[in-house]
Specification:
By secondary structure, the protein is α+β, with helices and mostly antiparallel strands. The protein has three domains: 3-70, no CATH class; 77-144, SH3 type barrels, CATH 2.30.30; 145-176. Helices cover 27% and strands 21% of the residues. The protein has four helices and nine strands. The chain has helices at residues 41-56, 134-142, 147-159, 164-172; strands at 9-11, 21-23, 59-61, 68-70, 85-90, 96-101, 107-109, 112-116, 123-127. The chain is elongated, with a radius of gyration of 26 Å. It starts with 8 loop residues before the first strand and ends with a helix. The mean pLDDT is 81.
């Protein structure tokens, strides 16, 4: 690694066309492609290390800057707890699926219901017309505060304050 390697720019290799090649300000082109005449083992070693790291955690890119973002994997799986709800759903292929989710994360949005499901904790949206046990889900949904009500309850909980409206919400949703 030379002094002017800090001024290296990433280019497309003129020999093999690999987009990961680098050219220092005052130096020769280095390419990570082993079949290329500009091949540099130091550059290839660093890229292989990055690829190994990439296998352990998902990589995302910012849409405008194309900057790589590595997010660590979750240490433990999502557990909806003892109050888990089983949602039976018929997908577009006609297959019946059963999702186990947390009823506290239920949300209604137009013709869909969304909730976080086990084991990943990812939020999924399900079409109401394809939910086979819609009566059970709607019954739980009526016992769940709206996002605006949840925000108000969290506001008062965070500040240790109260209001008449909060008291009515607490009576309406005692388990929340």
């Amino acid at each position: 690694m030379g002094l002017f390697d800090w001024f290296a720019r990433q280019i497309r290799c003129p020999e093999c066309g690999d987009g990961r090649a680098r050219q220092p300000l005052f130096g020769r082109i280095r390419c990570p492609n082993r079949a290329c005449s500009y091949f540099d083992a130091r550059l290839a070693g660093g890229l292989e290390e990055e690829e190994l790291q990439a296998e352990s955690a998902p990589i995302y890119r910012k849409p405008h800057t194309r900057e790589r973002i590595t997010k660590p994997k979750a240490a433990e799986s999502f557990n909806p707890g003892a109050r888990a709800i089983q949602v039976r759903y018929q997908n577009y292929r006609g297959e019946e699926k059963t999702f186990s989710g947390d009823p506290r994360t239920l949300r209604r949005r137009h013709k869909h219901i969304s909730l976080r499901v086990a084991p990943t904790g990812i939020r999924i949206a399900l079409a109401r017309e394809r939910i086979l046990n819609l009566a059970e889900v709607d019954a739980l949904l009526s016992k769940t505060p709206t996002p605006r009500e949840q925000a108000l309850m969290a506001y008062h909980k965070e500040r240790g304050t109260t209001s008449p409206f909060l008291q009515r919400l607490r009576m309406k949703y005692p388990d929340w």
